[in-house]
Amino acid sequence: MIQFSVEETFLKTDEITNLSLALTQAHQQLVNRNGKGNDFLGWLDLPIELSHTQLTLIQQCAEKLRAQSEVIVVIGIGGSYLGARAVIDALQNPFAALNSTQKSPIIVYAGNSLSENYHAQLIALLNKKEYSLIVISKSGTTTEPAIAFRILKQHCEKKYGKEQARERIVAITDAAKGALKQLADNEKYTQFTIPDDIGGRYSVLTPVGLLPIAAAGFDIFQLVDGAKKIRKTLFSNITPDNNIALQYAGIRYLLYKNGRKNEILVAYEPTLQYFIEWFKQLFGESEGKEGKGIFPTGAIFSTDLHSLGQYIQEGERHIFETVISVKHASLTTPIPYSKDNIDNLNYLQDKSLHEINQTAELGTRMAHIAGGVPNMTISIPEIKENYLGQLIFFFEFSCAIGGYLLQINPFDQPGVEAYKKNMFKLLKKP
User: Fold this and answer.
1) Which end of the chain has less Cβ packing within 10 Å, N or C?
2) Is 368 a catalytic residue?
3) Dihedral sign, CA of 10, 23, 18, 229?
4) pLDDT the model gives residue 102
């Protein structure tokens, strides 16, 4: 099970104690489904409602795509792709695309930007590769993925013919309405449903996340099982004493009230970069409204200690730090002995890189605390599907609690429409 610990918050004990009642009330609002945005709480029961049969159908579709593809393109933006990418990037070999013996298809992404260069280069790749498409959109009219799908659908049909292209395209969309639903029905694509009561950023454990993750070759049964395990704990413990999501949400809220407006989520494993990106969307869209909310950002250490480290250590004190700590590495890389020892590293020869990385984590935490940066740690034993499932549900639950503490609806995102209105007006959309 994942663990939560507090190294230093610079909060007074009575501040934390006095928030206990508010946290219990927020917990009751969430699990009793009577808080703001309660029509978007379908994600709460996903870990226990997803049946073996449903997961098997997703797995079977993924295997079909894998069998016919060197490349699988996931078309989506925001929650329609970030959750899947967070898990896939965390688990996959970062050098898989360069491995000539690699048998699994490579997962790539489209429709998450409007970059012409990116999509043109993707088309150039697909000219040479066998590929399939997973298109994800509840409405089918979100500009970025809709444009990408129009381009890639045409390419797929031109390359394979309409009948074979139909076997290479899977749509994940609304159950009954929307442009993509209509198109998928007309073209007879294989379809999976985005539940009406689950928003994009909470959709990792729906087909939105599960199909791409399974297509990448990872164990969605273990991912869901991890979420199920931690759900039981977070539901049954109604006070902060034994509920790590309430502890985390409560400390975040108190730090925010004490002027710490920015949270840096830190990992010491580069493969967690997109997990941080998913976290940023989850908390940014959920909390950033009505002039309220912590600004979520992230960093990969020790890499970013050589760019942001100076500011974190001695800059303005409006930040706090949360670390995802990975206790064990799946592989070992010892430091070799050198007879010359010109670089003076022989003192490390009996240690692995992971040991050194963990020491860097501890030393950084000590330095930042000394520099006045509140510090919390979320620990996982290793980067595996089960623990990532636990992390996903933990952050979703914590985020919802944090929204209720701020007295906002953590499940809508009205501000996202502002840029679209301006863009459509400038483009003279009818």
Assistant:
1) C
2) no
3) negative
4) 65
Nearest Cα to 108, choosing from 84, 90, 91, 128? 84
Rounded Cα gap, residues 418 and 415, in angstroms: 6
Beta-carbon contacts of residue 210 (< 8 Å; ≥ 6 apart): 55, 58, 204, 220, 223, 224
- pLDDT given for residue 417 in this prediction: 76
Dig out the tokens for 378 from the structure. Answer: 């979320």
| Catalytic position from the list 144, 285, 287, 385 | 285
Domains observed in the chain? 3-34+223-415 (3.40.50.10490), 42-218 (3.40.50.10490)
First to last CA, the chain: 52
Q: Report the candidate in 221, 204, 212, 223 with the shortest Cα–Cα distance to residue 106.
A: 212
Q: Which of 424, 399, 202 is nearest to 296 (CA)?
A: 399
Q: State residue 334's pLDDT score.
A: 82
Burial class (CB in 10 A: 0-12, 13-18, 19+), 167: middle
Q: Which residues of the chain are under the pLDDT cut of 50?
A: none
Burial of 254 (0-12, 13-18, 19+ CB in 10 A): buried
DSSP for 90-109, please give it.
Answer: HHS-TTGGG-TT--SPEEEE
Q: Which residues contact 224 (CB under 8 A, 6 or more apart)?
A: 46, 47, 50, 55, 205, 210, 389
Distance CA 202, CA 377 (A): 23
pLDDT for res 354: 93
Task: Please give the structure tokens belonging to residue 95.
Answer: 């050098």
Asked if residue 76 lies in contact with residue 258, where contact means CB atoms within 8 angstroms, the answer is no
pLDDT at 100: 60
- Contact yes or no for 201/79 (Cβ under 8 A): yes
- Cα–Cα distance between 56 and 33 in angstroms, integer? 30
Classify residue 310 by burial, with Cβ atoms within 10 Å: 0-12, 13-18, 19+: exposed
pTM of the model: 0.95
Residues belonging to the chain: 430
Identify the residue whose tokens are 């979100």. 142
**Active-site position among 292, 420, 421, 429:** 420
Concerning whether 306 is annotated as a catalytic residue, the answer is yes
Q: Which position among 103, 116, 163, 306 bears the catalytic label?
A: 306
Rounded to whole angstroms, what are the CA distances from 310 to 73, 208, 269, 304? Answer: 39, 39, 20, 10
